[in-house]
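Appendix B, Record 12. Input sequence as logged:
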Amino acid sequence: MAEISKDSKFTISLELIVILGGALITTAGMFFTLKSEIEEAKLLPEPPISRTEYDLKDQMIRNSILNTEEKVEKLEEKVDDIKADTRSINETLLNMNTK
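Logged structural output:
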């Protein structure tokens, strides 16, 4: 492992200095550009919802509600069938016990 001391020599080529300087300038430029774009975006009004988008969302919600209603009706029918089956089983059991 190399040790660093007062007598250590560290050399940097001109090419490395130019590359590091270019990278620093590019990074700083990107930062300030992004910062100004964010500030500009904060000042812009929120985009309005278009009529088409509103209609599509409204239709999607209505379809969802209709599908839910259909499912609830099917479940109610199944519950009614289960109740009828339960009554039938209870009647059969009562008839068996009374005989």
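The chain has a mean pLDDT of 90.
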